[in-house]
Specification:
Layout lengths: L5 H15 L2 E2 H12 L3 H5 L1 E2 L2 E2 H15 L6 H4 L3 E2 L6 E2 L15 E2 L4 E2 L8 H11 L10 H5 L8 E4 L3 H4 L3 E2 L6 E4 L1 H7 L8 H16 L1
Length: about 210
């Protein structure tokens, strides 16, 4: 088996930490490499001088930390990977088993698969149909920069953090969700509650003025 997609990596990482508990970075890498039956060539493959499969796992960790599923390195320690308190993995839910009913339910308490609180794919779809795939904060458009391979590459940000709500609620795709690039999404969640879109835009504008002086 080759290095899986990001979606599968996130699913397998959540499952691993839920079933075994906190693990060191080395244990995470070796456990997932064994699960995926990576070849010596795949284990040795590098990008920009770093291990490709390890980079993919680290990116998955970052996204899961942003979503509130696993603990941030600042909380667990950089060399320790663990689930966030109160989060568990539902063995009965696969990565694709996400409710897509017209009412777009979000939440389903604190049982998660890959997407925190069983996030609705339909809600994401409606959000992007309305706003497009350009970052609401910095205006980054992956397709315009990277070409066809960047088409459709964008995160969707909940303006009200689901993890702060806990219970199930009905998400409004146009008022509760916005498209956001991974970089802006990461910065948004450097504070709890998350920085608002207005605050993030202000940061960019302020630093742009500083750079021009």
């Amino acid at each position: 088996m080759s290095i899986p997609t990001r979606k599968i990596i996130k699913h397998d990482l959540v499952k691993l930490l839920s079933e075994i508990g906190p693990l060191t970075t080395i244990d995470v890498y070796s456990s997932l490499a064994e699960k995926w039956q990576l070849t010596h060539q795949e284990l040795s493959s590098k990008r920009s001088g770093a291990s490709l499969y390890q980079n993919e796992i680290r990116w998955a960790r970052q996204e899961l930390a942003i979503e509130g599923i696993i603990a941030r390195p600042s909380e667990s320690g950089r060399a320790v990977w663990r689930m966030n308190t109160g989060i568990c993995f539902s063995k009965s839910i696969s990565p694709d088993d996400i409710d897509t009913s017209a009412s777009y339910p979000e939440g389903a308490t604190k049982t998660v698969s890959v997407n925190a609180y069983e996030r609705s794919n339909e809600a994401r779809k409606k959000c992007l149909e309305h706003y497009g795939y350009r970052c609401i904060v910095c205006a980054l458009d992956f397709e315009s920069i990277y070409g066809a391979i960047g088409k459709g590459c964008i995160h969707v940000h909940h303006l009200v953090e689901i993890s702060s709500i806990g219970a199930e609620y009905q998400v409004d795709p146009l008022n509760d969700l916005v498209p956001i690039c991974p970089n802006c999404h990461y910065i948004a969640h450097q504070r709890r509650p998350a920085f608002t879109v207005k605050e993030l835009k202000s940061m960019i504008a302020t630093n742009a003025r500083k750079s021009s002086t």
